[in-house]
């Protein structure tokens, strides 16, 4: 949310000192010095004094005067912008950029600004971009000398750099029910932690063949979001009871859906390789997840951070993607991935065809066997009444 800043331009009681002659600037300075020394004129007088001193090249004095104006009117947008101007004139580009960014973050849209102030905002925006470009270049040069590359060995550092430079937003685990502390904040996991993925991917042709038989009966799929009428329903972009996002369950709430599983022996055999959570009445969950053209699963988080979600893409037209935190990936048929659904995520199908993946759960690899047992026991002991969607 933006802060409320005054966009009123402090009135001038003398000609514009930034374009006046040296004599006029001197007269303006003396005038405003007289006013401020007598405690008159308020922030407008201090602002006028700063402008006059700036025109005379008295940058340090101008900064001191402007500080008085900012102290008296801390929410005035033009004063913040002008503080950036003076700091830039004083050779302090980092501080200037900091003031510019503060002003830009809180400023209203350009079309709501007076013309003169709009030009000042645009100038500040350009100055920030120029400073950041120079800063990034210096940083990259220093890092290159320290051995930094864009290889996988520096993937975590590269993510930290993107966050530092504002290229990406920080997203953290926010499970809706249960949070297990101390687990790494990872959006998409490297597949080396899940060697069994190779066996699952190898079964892709057989799994897809079973899926294609099921798709001949569209009624086999049911809406993924079917709210329990005894519980409050969260808004999910109109997807409640909507077949645009549908499911064909093989496991549901920890139980095999026998009729469906019987139709998918190859898929069930592939799932035998997966260390899935075993939680009474709750997990595992395995399903074919179908998104029709134009469907959008709006941003949300899962219910706990002790399990991860796996996707095996089976039918994926162009225009289908998943965003987890600040990283968006495009599904590729037969190439599985694993992600933490306790981090905000969303998905969409912007194609004219149906997208289907196999969705299933696995334990977080960092949990010990004893921790898994305790988590399963605890979650299995929670009475029904909690939304358990994945």
Automatic annotation (TrEMBL):
Q: Where is this region: Disordered?
A: 1-24
Q: Per the record's keyword annotation, is Oxidoreductase included, yes or no?
A: yes
SUPFAM superfamilies, from UniProt? Answer: Clavaminate synthase-like, TPR-like
Identify its protein family.
Belongs to the aspartyl/asparaginyl beta-hydroxylase family.
PANTHER family cross-referenced by the UniProt entry:
ASPARTATE BETA-HYDROXYLASE DOMAIN CONTAINING 2, ASPARTATE BETA-HYDROXYLASE DOMAIN-CONTAINING PROTEIN 2
TPR repeat start-end pairs: 43-76
PROSITE patterns registered for this protein in UniProt? TPR
Q: Which Pfam families match?
A: Asp_Arg_Hydrox (PF05118), TPR_16 (PF13432)
**Keywords carried by this UniProt record:** Dioxygenase, Oxidoreductase, TPR repeat
Protein's recorded name: Tetratricopeptide repeat protein
Domain (Aspartyl/asparaginy/proline hydroxylase): residue spans on this chain: 202-365
Q: Which SMART domains match?
A: TPR (SM00028)
**Domain of life according to the entry:** Bacteria
Source organism per entry reads Pseudoduganella danionis
């Amino acid at each position: 949310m933006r802060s409320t800043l005054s966009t009123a331009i402090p009135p001038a009681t003398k000609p514009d000192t930034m374009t006046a002659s040296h004599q006029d600037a001197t007269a303006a300075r003396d005038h405003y010095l007289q006013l401020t020394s007598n405690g008159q004129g308020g922030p407008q007088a201090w602002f006028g004094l700063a402008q006059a001193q700036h025109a005379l090249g008295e940058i340090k004095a101008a900064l001191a005067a402007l500080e008085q104006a900012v102290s008296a009117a801390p929410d005035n947008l033009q004063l913040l912008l002008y503080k950036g101007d003076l700091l830039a004139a004083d050779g302090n580009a980092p501080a200037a950029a900091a003031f510019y960014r503060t002003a830009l973050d809180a400023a209203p849209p350009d079309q709501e600004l007076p013309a003169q102030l709009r030009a000042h905002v645009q100038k500040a925006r350009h100055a920030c971009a120029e400073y950041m470009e120079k800063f990034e270049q210096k940083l990259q040069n220093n890092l290159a000398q320290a051995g930094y590359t864009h290889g996988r060995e520096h993937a975590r550092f590269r993510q930290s750099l993107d966050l530092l430079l504002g290229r990406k937003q920080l997203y953290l685990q926010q499970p809706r029910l249960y949070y297990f502390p101390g687990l790494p904040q990872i959006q998409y996991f490297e597949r080396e932690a899940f060697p069994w993925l190779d066996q699952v991917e190898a079964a892709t042709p057989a799994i897809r063949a079973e899926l294609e038989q099921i798709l001949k009966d569209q009624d086999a799929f049911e809406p993924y979001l079917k709210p329990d009428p005894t519980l409050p329903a969260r808004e999910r972009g109109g997807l409640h009871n909507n077949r645009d996002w549908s499911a064909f369950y093989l496991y549901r709430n920890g139980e095999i859906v026998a009729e469906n599983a019987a139709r998918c022996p190859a898929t069930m055999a592939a799932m035998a390789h997966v260390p899935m959570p075993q939680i009474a009445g709750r997990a595992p969950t395995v399903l074919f997840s179908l998104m029709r053209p134009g469907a959008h699963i709006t941003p949300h988080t899962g219910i706990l951070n002790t399990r991860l979600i796996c996707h095996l893409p089976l039918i994926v037209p162009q225009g289908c993607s998943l965003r987890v935190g600040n990283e968006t990936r495009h599904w590729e048929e037969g190439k599985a991935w694993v992600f933490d659904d306790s981090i905000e995520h969303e998905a969409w199908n912007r194609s004219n065809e149906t997208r289907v993946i196999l969705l299933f759960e696995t334990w977080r690899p960092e949990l010990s066997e004893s921790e898994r047992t305790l988590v399963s026991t605890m979650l299995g002991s929670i009475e029904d009444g909690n939304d358990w969607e994945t």
